[in-house]
Design goal:
Blueprint lengths: L5 H8 L17 H4 L9 H12 L17 E5 L30 E8 L4 H16 L7 E7 L5 H9 L12 H10 L1 E5 L5 H15 L3 E8 L3 H7 L6 H8 L8 E4 L6 H11 L13 E9 L8 H5 L2 H19 L8 H13 L9 E7 L1 E2 L4 E2 L17 E6 L11 E6 L6 E8 L21 E7 L3 E9 L7 E9 H4 L7 H11 L8 H20 L5 E4 L7 H8 L5 H4 L3
Parallel strand pairs: 1-5, 1-6, 2-3, 2-5, 3-4, 7-12, 8-17
Antiparallel strand pairs: 7-13, 8-11, 9-10, 11-12, 13-14, 14-15, 15-16
Helix pairs in contact: 1-16, 4-15, 12-13, 12-16, 13-16
The structure holds NADPH dihydro-nicotinamide-adenine-dinucleotide phosphate (NDP) and ligand LXAUTJHC.
């Protein structure tokens, strides 16, 4: 595994990507021939128009406009897992060149290929998300979906497999069957190896048949394990190496690095909350914020997915990607505009201000079995897919500090764990005490309990609430803590779209605001690589915690060292 030293970090993360620093490729300068992949995205010009239409809120009812076929778009799962702990696998995915097939027809088409179509993510998330987009009229008039994997399957078998996981939006149930039929008729399957040029060339031929003489836009969703991915670009070591290798085949603007947490409604709402409400932005700094907590927990263990999980562990699986991305959005400076590059420039800057983590800043845990009256819950190492004696952490807590004028000294505490008491993902912002508080005597002895806390509950049961102090009605002066609560289910009847729907639609439209740029990824790894390396090299034994508990005691000690109490535990909310 390649390690990022801080020197490495500096050299990788100094130059924010800027569109103008890239060589321009246009259909007329032969750009197609130089772009190696089976897919294409709209040009930057079309992209800007789409971004602004999106911000005006015109999603969707066929609002997707694909004017110009060019280049390639590939979605890759960087949300986790690289650099790999172990290098494994021997397959590679090589994308063949396609000839320029933009022949100037007015109509455009989009072809979406789900590579790894036989897998878990494709079945559970990607095909259902595409179906939801279809139901919402978010896919263009002409589109084709291809599943690609090694498994042998006919089109009918693929359709049968997909149909089992499709569900209808609550408010569009009427024509559901009909819609499913229409959608499934647009789905096809091609079996092939991930490293076989010929197999991809066959797929290319089939796609061309569907695309006809229309302007083609192609999107590849690489829903395959990262080890295949790494080999795919003839590299088996690190994220930076992967980026370098990918760039032999694709330009930065053809790669959509996905972290599905960025597609979650409440994560999208974070910037709206902060930048469009006068009351929050002035408080958003060390002057008023005592600490920030990013909490992820699942009430189930690896349950059969341990083979996959064991190579990575919870830090790579959840923290380095999902929680860190949320943190970057939370802590970044105000971007120049809502354009993708402006936002990503700010995210890179704040990531680069974060101090790389060391063992002292981190606690790791692993769940053990637990019996309650009727059920026995297995230990992580009871999972048959987990190697005996595995030291892989299923829980981690970390304290991150941001060395800049806005955040110096504010602890950003993260914790993430599997097999805990409940399932939740939330951001908790604990504000400072009121100086010279007139009511301090009425607020009880634990003044921390009485500070304001803003909670952004990403899931489940999405909500944003602010804990305030108020007077209990009556003649006496008794104080209470209450929530001002924006509870989504109560406020909005519309179902919240799945994160993958938003991200797939964005990728189809060429909108990259919610995707991760390569320098962002470098900066993110630079924070976690030293500690991951230390944990591996020193064979650090994780602290045990029982399945279904609140996690290891070490997480409380870590928080206490920074004068923090975990908000989810102290309020029980
Ligand atoms: N599942 C999830 O909930 C999430 C997954 N991800 C990421 O998405 C990607 C896909 O995940 P998931 O669907 O769970 O993965 P799977 O393990 O289900 O793999 C997907 C497909 O890839 C092929 N494959 C699997 N292992 C190998 C191998 N060793 N060599 C060659 N081909 C292989 C198989 O297809 P075939 O044999 O037919 O070729 C398989 O159906 C991964 O990168 C994962 O980290 C991210 C977030 C959540
Ligand atoms: O990326 C991953 O995310 C899921 C949790 O996603 P959610 O949207 O259901 O909260 C996690 O279970 C998985 O281990 C991880 O790879």
């Amino acid at each position: 595994m390649a390690a990022f030293s801080s020197a490495h970090r500096r050299s990788h993360a100094t130059t924010p990507y800027s569109p103008s620093s890239r060589p321009r490729l246009s259909p007329s300068d032969g750009g197609h021939h130089r772009r190696v992949a089976l897919s294409s995205i709209p040009s930057r010009l079309a992209l800007r128009a789409q971004s602004s239409s999106r911000l005006r809120g015109s999603r969707c009812a066929n609002a997707v406009r694909l004017h110009e076929g060019a280049g390639a778009a590939t979605i890759i799962p960087v949300e986790n897992k690289l650099p790999l702990k172990k290098s494994e696998g021997s397959l590679s995915l090589t994308l063949p060149k396609v000839e320029n097939i933009n022949i100037g027809e007015n109509e455009s088409t989009v072809s979406i290929t789900v590579v790894g179509a036989s897998g878990d993510l494709a079945k559970r998330k990607i095909f259902p998300a595409l179906f939801a987009l279809f139901c919402e009229d978010c896919l263009p008039k002409h589109f084709t979906i291809y599943g690609y994997a090694r498994s042998k399957m006919t089109d009918a078998e693929l359709r049968n497999m997909i149909s089992k996981s499709l569900t209808c939006r609550t408010h569009k149930r009427e024509n559901c069957e009909e819609k499913m039929d229409q959608f499934l008729k647009r789905c096809f399957y091609h079996s092939g190896h991930y490293d076989c040029l010929e197999n991809f060339a066959e797929l290319d031929k089939k796609l061309k048949l569907h695309e006809g003489r229309r302007i083609s836009n192609r999107l590849f969703y690489l829903s395959i394990p990262p080890n295949i991915f790494v080999d795919a670009v003839r590299c088996s070591k690190s994220s930076a190496a992967l980026t370098k290798a990918l760039k032999q085949y694709l330009e930065e603007n053809q790669i959509f690095r996905i972290d599905h947490y960025l597609g979650k409604e409440l994560v999208e709402n974070l910037s709206v909350l902060r930048f469009s409400n006068l009351i929050f932005e002035p408080l958003w700094s060390r002057n008023y914020i005592r600490n920030v907590q990013l909490i992820f927990s699942e009430d189930f263990g690896t349950e059969g997915r341990g083979g996959y999980f064991d190579s990575y562990g919870i830090i790579r699986d959840i923290m380095q990607n999902h929680l860190l991305q949320i943190l970057a959005l939370f802590a970044m400076e105000t971007p120049v505009s809502l354009d993708a590059e402006d936002i990503r420039n700010e995210k890179v800057k704040v990531l680069r201000c974060m101090k790389p983590l060391h063992l002292d800043d981190v606690v790791i845990g692993q769940y053990t079995s637990h019996n309650d009256r009727s059920t026995t819950y297995p230990a992580y190492t009871d999972d048959k897919t987990v190697p005996n004696g595995s030291l892989t952490p299923t829980f981690a807590a970390a304290a991150i500090f941001i060395n800049n004028a806005r955040w110096e000294g504010v602890p950003f505490l993260m914790k993430a764990g599997k097999a805990l008491q409940d399932r939740r993902a939330e951001i908790r912002v604990q504000f400072r005490h009121v100086p010279g508080n007139l009511y301090s005597q009425k607020l009880g002895t634990d003044l921390d309990q009485a500070t304001n806390e803003l909670v952004i509950r990403v899931q489940p049961d999405e909500a944003i609430y602010l804990m305030i102090n108020n007077k209990v009605p009556g003649l006496e002066m008794k104080l209470d803590h209450s929530n001002l609560n924006l509870h989504y289910a109560a406020r909005y009847s519309k179902e919240i779209p799945d994160a993958y729907e938003r991200l797939l639609l964005d990728a189809i439209e060429g909108e990259r605001r919610l995707f991760i740029r390569s320098d962002e990824l470098d900066a993110a790894w630079a924070i976690f690589t030293p500690v991951l390396k230390e944990i591996d090299e020193k064979n650090i034994v994780p602290e045990s915690y029982p399945y279904g508990s609140r996690g290891p005691a070490g997480a409380h000690r870590l928080a206490a060292r920074h004068n923090v109490k975990w908000g989810d535990l102290s309020t029980g909310q």
